[in-house]
Design goal:
The complex is a heterodimer of chains A (337) and B (258). With 337 residues, chain A is mostly helical. Chain A has one domain (12-30, 44-327): Orthogonal Bundle (ABC transporter involved in vitamin B12 uptake, BtuC), CATH 1.10.3470. Chain A is built from 14 helices and two strands. In chain A, a hairpin with a 5-residue loop joins strand 1 (33-34) and strand 2 (40-41). In chain A, helix 3 packs antiparallel against helix 13 (280-304) and helix 4 packs across helix 5. The radius of gyration of chain A is 20 Å and the shape is globular. Chain B has two domains: 1-67 and 163-258, Rossmann fold, CATH 3.40.50; 88-161, no CATH class. Chain B has nine helices and twelve strands. Chain B has helices at residues 46-54, 76-82, 98-103, 118-130, 146-159, 176-191, 203-209, 227-230, 233-240, and strands at residues 4-13, 23-31, 35-39, 61-66, 69-70, 83-86, 164-168, 195-200, 212-217, 220-226, 245-249, 252-256. In chain B, helix 4 packs across helix 5 (146-159). Chain B is globular. Classes of the chains: A mainly alpha (337), B alpha/beta (258). At the A-B interface, helix 9 and helix 10 of A face helix 2, strand 6 and helix 4 of B.
Chain lengths: 337, 258
């Protein structure tokens, strides 16, 4: 009867169309942005005339573009899920010990074993889940502040624990063989990504995104208190576990090839909420598209600004923290309660 | 008068399965389309009793029957269409509008992976209209006053279209005006056939809103029955352990603690 209550119904499809075009535009742009043949820009005609340019795009830029896209989508989706379920605008995988846990797992496998990418992924996943569990258990048992603050504090503790673990591993690692690999995880970057790497993470990352999309209508229900959720036919513990584990596994897998890329998961859901409103289902879909764009553009910056790459994690932290400050001052985050 | 929709028989319940029961041999019958108030001191087991009827906890002993069937015979989805809950302190998802919050009440009518349909939108709008929040439906829940939020929670439960509505301390944070609005709303729901079971600390609220009252002390029923006969000085003194005086104002009992 009063369906106009659903908040400007025709604005939302238009927003999604815009976001989809944005993804397409970012991908096209990224193909031509880079350091070859001259810094910043490769004119399109090179694709026809220059064999090296073709091979460069096909074997280096394309897998890298798709990996950055996938990584941003997964990180932003995981951030949306965590912010929704924990009812906390200040959390994401990087703030809950998930990314640091994954990096620790990856580093551990590098030091202990001679790992294939598969083993690194498995280790990263196990410790990413451990990181989240640790944050959650700590938050339950801290007797200081409200739930939002406790979870943030617990995330800091859990992240610090795994960071120090990584520090120990760096100390004992072989400085010539293992150390450079570990340092790579700490800064985050996609410079070595090949089609083979992408194919390794693609199935699990896509599965994780797909499952989260399927469950998108449950997200707001899972943010309710247990007894309310139960009264609405939800199995709160079971469903929360499925959704969180799915996003953590997705995160761990992209971290295992891209390293720690922070802030995308924190910032993007907030921007998505500004665009499509608060319904978590729509926010999730919008976050995925926007997260892909943000990570891709940051990666373009990382590989283009200087001849020697800037690690992607540093670019996203710089961009992310700047946007975060702006949003905080404009009271877009947590300022309207 | 009317048939009983819920019957509790010899319920015993303790947390963590301890032998120390919070509810002891509690038996109760609740009539259809009435308002039943459960009263008792803090920690007497009122909220626990609601959680047993909701089914989120199971009693160690005894039986709960709804419409003549054991609670365990209902599927989760059947139960969620039967019983709605207005908890004492609802938590609201981040940045949700009143409309989208109320729409969550339609979850029992959708599949696990389904989004809201036109009939869900309609039911949510109707529930918002029932509680008088139509003008607020695009506002963020977080921007509402305490009273308006409570009405939004009731609307969310009404969108569920429940036969039985459980309300835990529904009036405790409300000012006089909002309290009156909510009481009128609850009476209206009962008149429309909803069975309401609410807990309250305030016997005067019970006297105004309820048909029946149940007094609980330390997990045992002190008295139950029609509100006029149950809310007398002797019963209330036995329940709360303080001397209580009951006056009659406009034919309704008014409870005064001297």
């Amino acid at each position: 009867m009063r369906s106009e209550n659903t908040m400007m119904p025709d604005r939302v499809p238009r927003a999604f169309l815009f976001l989809a075009l944005l993804v397409l535009g970012a991908v096209l742009l990224s193909i031509f942005v880079g350091r070859y043949p001259t810094p910043y820009w490769m004119p399109a005609r090179y694709l026809w005339h220059d064999e090296l340019a073709r091979r460069l795009v096909l074997h280096l830029r394309l897998p890298r573009i798709l990996t950055a896209l996938l990584m941003g989508m997964v990180l932003a989706a995981a951030g949306t899920v965590m912010q929704t379920i924990f009812r906390n605008p200040l959390v994401c995988a990087g703030f809950l010990g998930v990314s640091q846990g994954a990096a620790f797992g990856a580093a551990l496998s590098i030091v202990l074993l001679t790992p294939s990418l598969m083993i690194i992924e498995i280790f990263a996943t196990i410790f990413a889940l451990t990181g989240l569990l640790l944050s959650y258990l700590l938050a339950w048992n801290i007797h200081y502040g409200d739930w939002v603050l406790r979870l943030v504090l617990a995330g800091i503790v859990s992240s610090a624990l795994f960071s120090s673990g990584v520090g120990v591993l760096k100390y004992v690692a072989d400085p010539l063989k293992e150390l450079p690999d570990i340092v790579f995880w700490l800064m985050g970057g996609l410079w070595a990504v090949t089609w083979r790497d992408l194919l390794y993470v693609l199935p699990i990352a896509v599965l994780s995104l797909g499952l989260l999309l399927l469950m998108r209508h449950r997200l707001n229900l899972l943010a309710l208190r247990d007894d309310t959720a139960f009264s609405l036919g939800v199995s709160p513990f079971k469903e929360r576990t499925v959704v969180l584990a799915t996003s953590v596994v997705g995160t761990a897998v992209v971290v295992s090839i891209g390293g720690i890329v922070g802030w995308v998961g924190l910032i993007v859901p907030h921007i998505a909420r500004r665009i499509v409103g608060a319904d978590a289902g729509k926010v999730l879909s919008a976050s995925m598209l926007l997260g892909g764009v943000v990570a891709l553009l940051c990666d373009d910056l990382a590989r283009t600004i200087r001849a020697a790459e800037i690690p992607l994690g540093i670019v996203t932290s710089l961009v992310g923290s700047a946007i975060f400050m702006i949003m905080f001052f404009r009271s877009d985050i947590g300022g309207r309660s | 008068m009317s048939t009983s929709i819920i019957s509790l028989t010899d319920l015993c319940f303790g947390y963590n399965g301890r032998e120390q029961f919070i509810l002891k041999d509690l038996s109760l019958k609740i009539s259809e389309a009435t308002v039943t108030a459960i009263l008792g001191p803090n920690g007497s087991g009122k909220t626990t009793l609601l959680s047993l009827i909701l089914g989120i906890r199971s009693p160690q002993q005894g039986a709960i029957r709804i419409q003549g069937r054991e609670i365990g015979d209902y599927s989760r989805s059947a139960m969620s269409r039967l019983i709605g809950l207005v908890p004492q302190d609802e938590t609201f998802p981040l940045g949700l509008s009143v409309f989208h919050y109320v729409l969550l009440g339609r979850a029992p009518y959708r599949g696990l992976l389904e989004g809201p349909k036109a009939e869900d939108v309609h039911a949510a709008s109707e529930a918002i209209e029932t509680v008088g929040l139509t003008d607020f439906s695009t506002r963020l829940v977080s921007s509402l006053s305490g009273g308006e939020r409570q009405l939004a929670v009731v609307a969310r439960a009404l969108a569920q279209n429940p036969h039985v509505l459980l309300m835990d301390e529904p009036t405790s944070h409300l000012d006089l005006d909002n309290r009156s609005r909510l009481i009128a709303l609850i009476r209206d729901l009962a008149a429309r056939g909803v069975t309401v079971i609410l807990t309250t600390h305030d016997p005067n609220v019970a006297a105004r809103v309820a048909n029946d009252a149940v007094l609980i002390r330390r997990g045992e029923v002190v008295a139950s029955g029609a509100v006029e006969s149950v809310l007398n000085a002797d019963n209330l003194t036995a329940t709360y352990g303080v001397p209580v005086h009951v006056a009659q104002v406009y034919g309704k009992p008014v409870i005064i603690v001297p």
